[in-house]
Design a protein that fits this description.
The protein is mostly helical. The chain contains five helices and four strands. The protein has helices at residues 11-28, 56-70, 73-91, 101-115, 119-139; strands spanning 36-37, 48-49, 143-144, 147-148. The strands form two sheets. Strands 1-2 form a two-stranded antiparallel ribbon. β3 (143-144) and β4 form a beta hairpin. It is globular.
Length: 152
């Protein structure tokens, strides 16, 4: 069947998916407000870790999407805590010598800055962007998921 012939998603299906997703985020907040999910699962579960992996921005992005959808403070407060963690990460240069900076800061800080006017996020985007330029300026494209492959 061609794409055009497939049925379109309904408003009810969208609402049900969003309700399911935000409930799932809420269920995970007790364990993952000050911590993040590891980049890989162990025995089918993502253990809590500090903000050190290249994937941590995705979880924060899910929190901001939940806040944007529901307007509930539980998500906003969790997102703010997470933004503070990203600020600490960039200021202290914790695992930021890689090409995945966009994965860290785009889903986490862009929504907080553009849609929610969270001032720390705006400052963070500037610092994160500076770090991204610094990383690519020193070594060009010589980075991999395994880390630094050249010296500045």
């Amino acid at each position: 069947m061609r794409y055009e012939e497939k049925p379109q998603i309904t408003e009810q299906e969208i609402r049900e998916a969003m309700d399911f997703s935000t409930a799932q985020v809420k269920r995970n907040l007790p364990e993952f407000t000050t911590k993040f999910q590891k980049a890989y699962s162990e025995n089918g579960f993502y253990a809590p870790t500090d903000n050190v992996d290249w994937t941590t921005g995705f979880w924060t992005g899910e929190i901001w999407l939940s806040y944007e959808d529901t307007g509930k403070d539980i998500y906003k407060k969790a997102g703010e805590i997470q933004i503070d963690s990203f600020l600490n990460r960039i200021e202290n240069k914790i695992e930021v010598d890689h090409h995945d900076m966009g994965f860290l800061y785009s889903p986490s800080c862009v929504p907080a800055d553009h849609r929610l006017s969270f001032k720390s996020a705006a400052a963070l985007l500037g610092v994160g962007g500076d770090r991204r330029s610094e990383v690519s300026g020193h070594c060009g494209e010589a980075y991999s998921h395994g880390g630094r492959q050249c010296d500045p």
